[in-house]
Amino acid sequence: MSDPAALVADHLLDALPVAIVLIDPGGRVSGWNSAAEVLYGHPRADVLGRPVLEVLFEDDDVTAAAALIESVAPGDCWDGDFRVRRRDGALLVSSFRLAAVGGDEGGGGAAARAWIATDGMDQGLAEQERSVLLSAERAARATAEEALGLVEAILTSAPVGIAVFDLRLTYVRVNDAYAALTGLPAEAHAGRRLGDVVPLQAGVAADLRRVVTTGRTILGRPLEVLTDSDPAGVRSFTVSYFPVRSAAGALVGAGLALVEITDAKRAEAERAALLRLAEAAHQRLSILATASTVLTTTMELDELLTRLTRVLTPVAADWCVIELLGRHGEVEHVAVSNRSPAAAAALAATLRAAPMTLDGGGPIAEVLRSGQARLAHPGLMTELLHNAAIDRGQPDLARQFTLNSSVIVPIETRGEILGVLILSTEGDRRLDDDDLDLAVEIAHRAALAVGNARTFQQEHQIAETLQRALLPATVPIVSGLDVAVRYVAATDGASVGGDWYDVLAFDDGTTGVVVGDVIGHDIAASTTMGQLRTALRIYAWEEHGAPGSALARVDRLVDGLGLGYATCILGVLDLGASSFRWSNAGHPPPLLLRGGRASFLGEGNGVMLGATGGRRVVEAAAALEEGDVLVLYTDGLVERRGESLQEGFDRLAAAAEDAATEDAEVLCESLLEALVPASAGRGDDVAILVARIRPTVGRPGVHRLPFEPKPESAGLTRGFTAGVLQGAGWAQQVDTAVLLVSELVTNAIRHARGPCALVVSFAEDSVELSVEDGDPRLPVARGATGYEEDGRGLLLLDALAESWGARPLPAGGKAIWFVLRR
């Protein structure tokens, strides 16, 4: 049965509008009225008998609450605010009264306590809820104040400039970093317009208006600000714009945040500048390395200079000009390069036709005299171009060029000025000191290469002269036989070789033809060749009826004297018997051209001289017909690195068939041009002998030899002249004709343009020889003692020729001719 008194007490507590919690002397909940259920959220049944400290207080507050409960003695009470915890975890701060109930007031015995929320339910349930809300508001206010303090700390100390504007773009608030940028105190910004404080780009206001219009964020816009405080005058930023909204979400303004990147941008600019310098230096090193490689690829001066100019344009400059001087200060070599090959060729032709005056006042003459390199900037170019053109006698030449800058560098070695290197630019491109240093270094290396090339050419010319001195100066004239011979020296070395040819006119009317090749390319090979040629002439004269026997004797001599190995063909032409008998000592086989078809005479093959002591010599014979052509040659004509010898034979046969000529000289020249052109390098010497069986002799007719205006053409034309005249029975006129042709050809080499030709035309009792070239200017007498173009050759024509003159050619150019009589 329930205690009636207890029931009455419970009903009484429930009737009270305040939350009451009774605490027994052991600290446990012994009473919990309805108002307490509402305020704290715990049903009465869940809390009765539980420790009050566990039910009502947060762990952090348990110690203080226990001390407070113990501190209230019987008869006393405590009033104040304290924090309690609801069932849902919410913390409430409210006014309470704590009173001791029962117990011994005097003795301090154990007593119960009553915990009464004095502001909880005095207005009923609604008022109790208001109390809860007020407690929550206090907590929220404390949290908000804490957050606002954090935001304020961030605004104050942040290194980012922040400004907030209202919808009219008037300053509301700025932080210290932004104020440092504008130079005004932070509080002085409020109420001012955007443009009133610091001049910003128009895009800033536009972006802010876009934000307050659309409510969207704009990130990462570049911004530059002119300031008086910065020495450089310009500070760089990235700026972001964001909308500012009220707690209810309404758009009330816009803000911007500035992040300064001035140092980073300057560092990036410096890095980019250093990178450009590094790239330019790398490019110059690359140019220098390429130029160095080019300067070692050839010993032919014109080719060397042409390749070098092409390396330097357009990478280093728009124009590159190199001019080399001869021994007497004349311009000897010219190379020009430009993006336009036609423009480069035109300027090169002009420079060759109008060489510079070394004592002139122009910049090139000055550099050549002083030996000092020069850098010409835009302000001087007009004057310098004009002076340079005057030095060449062509003032109008300067108007053809609009150059911006130039470097003019002497090509010098061991104190000797060899020439000049010129680099020039057009448009906005400009050369500087680094380009001058590059040009000086290239000119230095070019000087070494030019010196080496000239030394090589001199040594090569000496070696070739020695080699040619060991060859027969002329070949005998044989009636019914048209003979042409050539010796072409190797270009890939200065050493002499062992190739030779010979023509022997025997007393019985037969003709011996010889082509041989001593193994090796040195003085020993050349001297061995001289010994073998002499021995073979002697033995062939004694035993020309049996060429194999003559070769056997030579073979024994080689073996006995310990001479170097050699290959050789000795053949005997008997025109009366229409036969050709030969013996081949390890040499490439003769080629027979008959009726336009080529074949090789593969019989009669033995081993090379010096290998068997004359024990393995073989002979062969073949019948000949009128018009047949025999071609004897050394392996330099057919051998190519990386291909079989058969491919070389096939190429020779095809070239012989393509030539389609009845003139031995022309065929000989055609084969050389097709198989070892002058423009290509030659790793081996070449000797070639062409013998043609003439048909029934009639009128000699016209003989034509094309040639290039190069020094080596002089010897070619002299040999052609002698061979044609001797073959036609004009032996008495050979010396005079050769002398006059040599003068005219030399003149053409020095002054002519384009390809040239020597033409020999026979009449009944006269022969006309003419030299054609592409220069339309006719020679004009200068006075009583001389003629234009030095005059020496024309004076000789006056003295030695029956008649002479000059005539224009229908296709352009001219021909200078002379006539000799029997």
Into which percent range does the helicity of residues fall?
25-40%
Shape: elongated
Question: How big is the Rg?
Answer: 57 Å
User: Briefly, what CATH class of the largest domain?
Assistant: Alpha Beta
What is the residue-averaged pLDDT? 82
Count of structural domains: 5
Are there runs of 5+ residues with pLDDT below 50, and where?
A: 120-125, 783-789
In the CATH hierarchy, the architecture of the largest domain is 4-Layer Sandwich
CATH fold category name of the largest domain: Phosphatase 2c, domain 1
Number of strands: 31
Q: Summarize the biggest pleated sheet.
A: 6 strands, mixed
Which range does the strand content fall in?
25-35%
Task: Offer a few descriptive terms.
822 residues; alpha+beta; Beta-Lactamase; 6-stranded mixed beta sheet; 5-stranded antiparallel beta sheet; 22 helices; 31 strands; elongated
Summarize the structure.
The chain has 822 residues and is α+β, with helices and mostly antiparallel strands. The strands form 6 sheets. Strands 17, 18, 19, 20, 23 and 24 form a 6-stranded mixed sheet that branches. The chain has a 5-stranded antiparallel sheet with strand order 2-1-5-4-3.
